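Mods, move this if it's the wrong board.
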Amino acid sequence: MSQFEDIISGKTKGAAAVAARGGLSALSALYCAATRTRNSLYDHGVFNRAKMPCPVISVGNVTVGGTGKTPMVEFIVRHLMDAGKKVVVLSRGYRARPG
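Not the wrong board. Structure tokens:
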């Protein structure tokens, strides 16, 4: 486990760790509120959705690495190809810059 994971899990004790967890908790609440607001704007038609002419599967959270997204994509692709489906994988790329 990394030092960061030890702080989050509560394994690391002390005032600094407690403060770090409190700060992360506050940031988490802020992120949650922003995400709910954004989703609500999509739900109410303020932001437009793009309709694709084919089924789309989105895998994982693009803001968090190391969660097993790549192996999951490989599994899904193999499964769909074995079923005779045409598959395209779109990726932003590792550490890609917006633009």
